[in-house]
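S.,

Sequence below, as promised.
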Amino acid sequence: SRSILHQQVYSFSTTTVRMARRSRSVGAVMLATALLLLGTSFFKEQLGFAAPSSSVSTPNRARFAGRAELTPSSSVAVAAGSGTLSKKQAYITGISWYLMHFVVSIGNDGIMKFLGDSLPAFQIVFLRFAAAAAVLLPILVTKGKSAFKSARMFMHVVRGALLCLGIGLWCQGLQIMPFASCVVINNTMPFFKMLFAQLILGEKVGKERWLASLAGFIGCLVVFNPTSATFQPLSLVLILSACCFAMLDIFNKKYSESETITSMLFYGSVATAFFAAFKAVPSWVPVTGGQLGLIAALGVGANGLLYCLLKAFNYVDASATCPYRYTEFILSAIAGILFFAERPSPSTLLGSCIILPSVIYTAMVETRETAATEESLSESKAAA
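The prediction came back faster than expected:
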């Protein structure tokens, strides 16, 4: 998640130190909640990934371990996991999973703010993904050799490399530009994601998604209020970072229907930890017992975050999630109010007033279009 990268690097600033101290009182609660939620997901229905509760049944398409059984979808494009859902139901389900991945992300942010006070950024990245792989390893072992099979090992390596390259470019950008400007540039990612989805995945990206994403980006500009004087040609590294993160989501979307969720989680974590180790080891800082507990929670959260994202991609286009990218700022502000007793700034409130209508507009247009398409198909079948 891009927000995690933002928070883990910025945690070395004065604001992050203050928030880290506040987070001590809720650290135990966050850890217990993360373990409980993900533990429930892991063991639900004998370690099978189930869709969110619904009156409409869905096929057991993607097992937690072992080879995925693919079934063609007749109800929604590129949403093989939603074969028995209507398009409107599939859209709502997919976006719900996508928003849930932000909830998990915010929980991880709180832990990373605390760890960032004493550990280097890349060491946290290495430990986080190493822990994520370690959490999954016992489950894979109990499932046998078939659980470790993957038809696209090189793809997992590329995913790990993309994530680490994106992190590295982001860190480089932070050294040459103010944090607010870096966040704004990084949030051009949805535009690259829509472009890649159209060119690589062949998705139909309507003007509504472009307009809603543009409105969300304007809301981001209002929240962070960067100045034109802070932008410089070297900011290209941040554009490249956004491209890496966008391409990573395209990989996740493309292979979420042919690879098991377990292989996407496990091998992606192993690859990322491997590449992060090259930067983490030279500046290694000893880790305390208390920090190890938080790192374990980060590993659980990392799996939960990607799990929610992959489930979202089983139901909706990658480009359909782009306008909702900017709701993270609103969810983060709500978390700040609830857990850190922070009052949102006027710019945050104003930016939220721009972001929320764009999200509501997107939801209304997308659900209306899917309903109209279904009605048209039903009439065609009746006529036939």
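Residues 346-383 form the longest helix (38 residues).

Coffee later?
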